[in-house]
Design a protein that fits this description.
319 residues, 19 strands, single chain, six-stranded mixed sheet, four-stranded parallel sheet, alpha/beta, extended
Length: 319
Amino acid sequence: MPEFVNPKYKDAEKTEFKKPTRLECMMQDFPVILTGIEATKVGFTSISADMCFSPVKNATADGVAMQKKGTAPGVAASGEADQYAAVRKIMRSIGCKIDEAGPATYSGISVVPGPAIVLKPNFVSCSAEYKEKFPTPSNINISARSSLVVIGEGVTIKSLTLDGALIIECEDGATGEISNMEVTNGGWENVADENLEVEFLKMRGYSLNKVETNKIVFKKDGSIESDIPTLESTVNDVPDEKTIEKEIATVPMVENDTSASKNEIKDNLSKSIGNTTSTKKKSIENSAPKTKVPRSFSEPEPDDVGAGKKDDKCACAIM
């Protein structure tokens, strides 16, 4: 590979080095040195820079000067903001409704700070997996000031309206589904501060103030742990024996009714009352700071978990 010198200068006249220069070689020059049949095997893939390349390599002062010239600043604040932007772009491409925050300036660097969406690699690792994790994207609504963090392979998000901060975590070996959920809270906010003592925060130009956060954890034992007070538990979904007997007493019976037919009515009423109760979404207030929901909160039909049996996965759902 041919080598070259790429000096960085302090002044426009190029009379003083900014730092010691060095010999370099560029990987993109490699195809140029190939000859014969080897040269015919060379190809390339071109991807928009905002989806694949946002280096964090420059001092903040240098980044400010570069941004004024229309060049990407390549600093901590822009690198983080560009990561959030790439996730938003992918989510919008499949039909999710993601608002866009207005620009903000930190230590002279202008960025679009949010919404800040962090999808961990064990949730999605490539753009093709987004459709699997968000199967009904038109039901995903995230406001401009929101922050969303999703952790865990087993979680699926079918419908979510978020205006604030939410952390969704699914333990290894567990499965979970977010459906018909609305979360509104104080959220997280960036606080601009150029006098921060922590080095990486000083580089970025702001600290994060977590005003209010809600969190949902799908546990491996099949339970759901949440600090959302309106999350309903199984107790509210399953009618008790007295309620069933009271409903049976109001049903007119014909003369030749058998005990078997009464049992059938009882079973049907149990299902009917349970289904009716489960549709009363967010009607039960729970004052406890944590809500542990047993496995029977919602178990999927076989189609929901593939060819395996229900017990193959700890499937839970927030409906």
